[in-house]
Amino acid sequence: MTDKKAQLSVDGLDQPIELPMYSGTLGPDVIDVTSLVSKGYFTYDPGFMSTGSCESKITFIDGAKGVLLHGGYPIDQLASQSDYLEICYLLLNGELPTAEELVGLPSALESGSDIIGEADESDTPMTGIEVGDDELNTFKLLEQVNELVAQDAPTAAKIVERWIASED
Q1: Which 3 state secondary structure label does DSSP give 138?
Q2: Residue 60 and residue 3 in one domain
Q3: Domain holding 27: CATH number?
Q4: Judgement on whether residues 74 and 32 belong to the same structural domain of the protein
Q5: How far apart are CA 73 and CA 149, in angstroms?
């Protein structure tokens, strides 16, 4: 948990509302406004220009600056210089593999073993990834995203940022 707090003063309330603050690896600190609804308040942020839609340990997005990082790597670099297996390794291990680390990974994927894991029902959807019947559709979607990133990375970052915001 965090020790950093923000205080929100509201006309008509005797006490300010304390809100927890968090620091990410990159970007500005964030204020968690989740508890405002229990006090009868919502936030207003047209276009979600200063709202983080989720917590991510692997992705950083700054649509205004055209920045989209995945695992600390610019997405256009991953799209142009990495293949599917390298991205799988990045998701599993938090870093890109060496040539030696890639040996044996294709057979692990083909064996049907559970190399990615499962999410607990109480976890967020991004906690675990399961490879299923939609793998082909996902692969096609990733190909399209890779093409867009290669053509125009800043626009791709803005589209992904809007897409994530619309999922909530």
Answers
A1: helix
A2: no
A3: 2.20.28.60
A4: no
A5: 13
d(C-alpha 78, C-alpha 73), whole Å: 7
> How far apart, in Å, are the Cα atoms of 151 and each of 33, 64, 71, 157?
37, 18, 21, 12
Look up residue 30 and give its two tokens: 């964030």
φ, ψ at 107 (rounded to 5°) = -65, -35
pTM for the structure as a whole: 0.47
59-62, strands of its sheet edge to edge:
59-62, 67-70, 73-74
User: What's the confidence (pLDDT) of residue 115?
Assistant: 44
CA distances from 1 to 72, 135, 165 (A): 24, 36, 25
**pLDDT tens, 57-86?**
778 888 778 888 888 899 888 888 888 778
The Cβ-side half-sphere exposure at 54, using a 13 Å CA radius, reads 20
Instruction: Examine the domain organization and report whether 124 and 95 are in the same domain.
Output: yes
Pairing of strands 30-31, 73-74: unpaired
Six-digit token pair at 148?
Answer: 């867009």
3-state helix, strand, coil in the chain (%, to 5): 40, 15, 45
DSSP string, 85-97: HHHHHHHHHSSPP
